Amino acid sequence: MSDINAGGWRPSMGEAGDAKFTTFSGDYGLMLEEALSFELGSADKCGVDLDPADRAPVAGLNKFLRKAAPGLPGLTEPETVRHYTRLSRQNYAIDLGPFPLGSCTMKHNPRLNEKMARLPGFADVHPMQPQKTIEGALEVIEQLADWLITLTGMASVAMSPKAGAHGELCGLLCIRAALDARGEKRDVVLVPESAHGTNPATAAFAGFKVESIPATPEGRVDVAALKAKLGPNVAGVMITNPNTCGLFEPEMKEIGDAVHAAGGYVYCDGANFNAIVGKVRPGDLGVDAMHINLHKTFSTPHGGGGPGAGPVVLSEALAPFAPLPFVTRGADGAIHLVEEENASEGHAQAFGRMVAFHGQMGMFTRALTYILSHGADGLRQVAEDAVLNANYVLRSCEDLLPAPFADSGPCMHEALFSDAGLAEGFSTLDIAKGLIDEGFHPMTVYFPLVVKGAMLVEPTETESKAGLDRFIGSLRSLAQRAKAGDQSLHSAPHFAPRRRLDETLAARKPVLVWKGEPGIPGTPSLSEIGGS
Amino acid sequence: MRYLPLTPADRIAMLAKIGADTVDDLFIDVPEAARLAGPIEGLPAHASEMAVERHMSALAAKNVSAGSAPFFLGAGAYRHHVPASVDHLIQRGEFLTAYTPYQPEIAQGTLQVLFEFQTQVARLFGTDIANASMYDGSTACWEAILMAARVTRKGRSVLSGGLHPHYGEVVRTMAKFTQDDIVSLPPKMVAEADDAAVIAAIDDKTSCVVVQYPDVMGRIPDLAAIAEAAHAKGALLVAVVTEPVALGLIEAPGVLGADIVVGEGQSIGVGLQFGGPYLGLFGCREKFVRQMPGRLCGETVDVEGKRGFVLTLSTREQHIRREKATSNICTNSGLCALAFSIHLTLLGGEGLARLAGTNHARAQATFERLTRIPGVSLMNDAYFNEATLILPRDAREVVRELAERKVLGGVSLGRLFPQGEGLRNGLLVAATETTTDEDIEAFALELEAVLEGASA
After folding, report:
1. Same structural domain for residues B123 and B202?
2. A3, A148, A196, A343: which has the fewest C-beta neighbours closer than 10 Å?
3. Whether residue B315 is found in the same domain as residue B403
């Protein structure tokens, strides 16, 4: 039994109910507690009917055999379905309400995408089948690639990166390879201080030194400071546009021209592409590489933290260096898969390989389904409605919550507020946890770092006006309570499956795996409750 | 447009509240030259659900799915039966459409699943701890090498010749940019894994040896002997498991002395999916925890004393440490981890052992039948559900000819190792519980016909 939970699973009454008693089960109506699968299961249970093997292992295997089956308890199917269904009810999700996390683009996940990804012709295909048996799969990759290239106005796209940060890495390695091909050693990457944490982490991961660029008081990249840093040691810059303050960088083209003139490349973090899809092509702004989070702009599900998908669109200058494998349409119109086996025939400068197979195919089918459903007109409407919704939130709350850059003009697809002006001792955390009690997921908090107590709200285009009005009402109510010094906010949430959790304890004495005994802890024995 | 809830009247009312005349007034920061006047030309307009379904179904129909033909491919991706309840449960909207659990009070479902997942992976691998997953096996492998360098403060890694060549390529690609020293041992088509060569390559500068178990040709390396040799020189053993079902039958790498165990979790619950999304597994010794990459879920209590779970030790991670983070990884493979965890919960340890036994038995039946074909022999002494057949001619052509005869007959070593000398006649063949006697017979008859055609 772990030190920090000596009493095990401990049902107790939250403040949620009005009942003045505790229940025997620890559940309260539809508020259901759930023990760990390790506490529920046992070694002699199995939810899969399997016949024993019909022959003994080959002689050569004998010295490698396990001494005992792995210590993993099993559950039958009904118990398994119930365990995970009960757990699922302790999660907030887009399907339950707005999920306005800034820079995360939590939009509705269309169910057609799920249905298409599960067609056996996509879901039940092996990545190393002979090419003649996977022509449809390569065509999906090629069609999606074509849309991404056209929507961004770029020359090419590397499809294999598995997530946004992996795409950043791909882009920086393309830059590395291009510099190597020029015979230049440049080892500095410039990153604005408002950037996502992945930007500097990726640059370091790719072997670059990171130098920070300050933001202006208007929430934009300090172009003069950036230009002052350019020189023969600068490999490139990483710019997020629209940026993390929710603003478009109007001098993007000028930045790009200056970086190119100094011999560097421009990486654009495409996390916020949802604001401009169909309205602006990054290729028109001098970008050399930009990852596209298919799990943001193109609606593939976040799944509680992944999987993502991060294809990287590339300029003419970087296209030759895209990693293997690579799908390309030849002059004859046929689609070819380029791997190590045949790379010398047309993609000889590839910088290498980033993943075992072709990238996130299951996400490609979903993203292509989404794109075809929306079409060129629908995608443009996506950006317009996303930006409209964010500005509506901005203008509906700015009288109560300071919006540090609201005077600069309209925001893009996310509205940024600060916690300045709340009563003494009240902060962004109180607003965020208060939103949980109001039935909403909080916005992104304390990011970007350039704003005190930042609250970054990204409603996305899939919220209705009525839904936004409810959210705005809750946010205004919370701001008023925090200004009035309502102490109950400090102990929020009151109505969630758990109250505030002790994160310090978790980090100080990490318990990362279960080491307890089977059986539901906290359940009294029959004798204790007067049974026989 | 069925996905966009704003009505024209809503848009007008909202613009009025904002104080803008048109939506384009909200894009005034975009330089005029860069603003597109209308939908991008040459691209189709929106389409109905029925029309999109028709388009996508036509593309899917151009592929030969594994279930529609005798199927024997492995090489790092395996076809296993996934119980119907797994796919049903991962489509619960509360799991499918949730974000990373940064607000733990309303994400206990995802967090408890991750805690259970970490425990399952650690027990399966025989390691003290495991993380909440990585992108896939190949990227987990590279992260393990980086971690070994941080732990040992050395930077030379030895890759066994039995490591999946794509994993090796990922490692060599990344190492090119980080200046890590990678020693890649050559693959050889012999009965035993290259344990002796691996051990001989370890020196005092070596941070780790990377050994796949079972290896890419289906052989089983002696991890205990390699671990002992590595530890004697102050190096770590990184074991790579691309077929975790094998661990129902053969000993867990952690038990045999592996310090870090990484793997591909695809074969439990996830499915083939043409190579992704897959599931990187990552387990290690507890004392290395602060050098680990990726998310970790930990147990704690809330203010009422109830057990709960949170993401923890995030001071290792990019959103806190920025350029000083242990990795740039941000997402994990959460939904695939959920599928893996559900499938493994259905199986339990006994079920996994039985599943592994059946896989091995189906492979035995496959190789017994195929080696009755003249000129075909089995390279391996030991194997789990996959081994290398030696054919009388280049296996790449044989695979293509088999495909024309509607048999998906394995992966040629020539495709895996285009530069590999002496490997061209090697054919990697895998069987699982899904392999029927009819599949085996069809494969045998067509292989025989293809090989006879060559000699004719």
Report:
1. yes
2. A3
3. no
Task: Provide the angle, in degrees to the nearest 10, between the axes of the packed helices B165-178 and B137-152.
Answer: 50
Output the average pLDDT for chain B.
96
Whether B189 maps to a domain, the answer reads: yes
Using one digit for the tens of pLDDT, what is the confidence trace for A131-145?
999 999 999 999 999
Whether B89 is covered by a domain: the verdict is yes
Chosen domain end from B300, B316, B343: B343
Query: Which two structure tokens, joined as six digits, stand for B248?
Result: 């129902």
Name which of A63, A502, A512 to mutate to probe chain B: the one with the most chain B Cβ atoms within 10 A of its Cβ. A512
**Following DSSP, what letter does each residue of B185-211 receive, concatenated?**
PPP--SSS-SHHHHHHH--TTEEEEEE
pLDDT computed for residue B421 by the predictor: 79
Indicate if B263 and B389 belong to the same structural domain: no
Domain of residue B363, CATH code: 3.90.1150.10
Last residue in a domain, options B310, B343, B376? B343
Which pLDDT value is given to residue A523? 61
Q: Which residues of A touch B288 (CB under 8 A)?
A: none
Residue B29 lies in a domain: no
**Size of chain B in residues:** 456
DSSP letter for each residue of A45-106:
--SS--PPPSSPPPGGGGGGB-SS--S--B--HHHHHHHHHHHHTTB--TTTS---BTTT--
R_g of chain B, CA atoms, integer Å: 25
Residue of A81, A162, A495 to mutate, testing the B interface (most B Cβ within 10 Å of its Cβ): A162
Rounded CA separation B175/A207 (Å)? 10
Which residues fall within 8 angstroms of residue A94, CB to CB, at 6 or more apart?
A106, A107, A108, A109, B93, B97, B98
Cα dihedral B92/B96/B101/B105 (nearest 10): -30
**CA dihedral of A276, A280, A282, A283, whole degrees rounded to 10:** 160
Mean pLDDT across A423-430:
97
In what helix (H) or strand (E) does residue B20 lie, and over which residues does it extend?
Answer: none
CATH code for the domain in which residue B254 is found: 3.40.640.10
Q: Do both B358 and B333 map to the same domain? A: no
Domain that holds residue B413: 66-81+349-455
Contact between A269 and B25 under an 8 Å Cβ cutoff? The reply is no
Window 158-197 of A, Cβ < 8 Å to B = 162-166, 168-169, 173, 176, 196-197
Is-contact B259 B285, C-beta < 8 A? yes
CB distance A116 to A366 below 8 Å: yes
Please give the tally of structural domains in chain B: 2
ipTM above 0.90, yes or no: yes
What does the pLDDT average to over A495-517? 94
* Torsion (CA) A98, A100, A105, A106 in degrees, nearest 10: -30
Looking at the structure, do residues B382 and B319 belong to the same domain, yes or no?
Answer: no
Q: For residue B15, tell me if it sits in a domain.
A: no
Partner A, chain B 180-219, Cβ-Cβ below 8 Å:
none
Q: Please identify, in words, the CATH class of the domain defined by A113-368.
A: alpha beta
Q: Do A129 and B130 touch (CB under 8 A)?
A: no
Q: How far apart are CA B312 and CA A254, in angstroms?
A: 42
Q: Helices (DSSP H) in A404-464: which residue ranges?
A: 428-437
Q: In this structure, are B266 and B305 located in the same domain?
A: yes
- List the 246-305 stretch of A: residues with Cβ below 8 A of B: 247-248, 250, 253, 276, 278-281, 284-285, 295, 301-305
- DSSP H/E element including A149: helix A135-152
Same-domain check for residues B199 and B278: yes
The answer to whether B257 and B224 are in contact (CB under 8 A) is yes
Q: Are residues B290 and B379 in the same domain?
A: no
Q: How many C-beta neighbours within 10 Å does residue B81 have? A: 14
Chain B: residue whose CA lies nearest to A103: B99
For residue B453, pLDDT over 90 is answered with no
Among candidate residues B324, B256, B333, the one with its CA nearest the CA of residue B290: B324
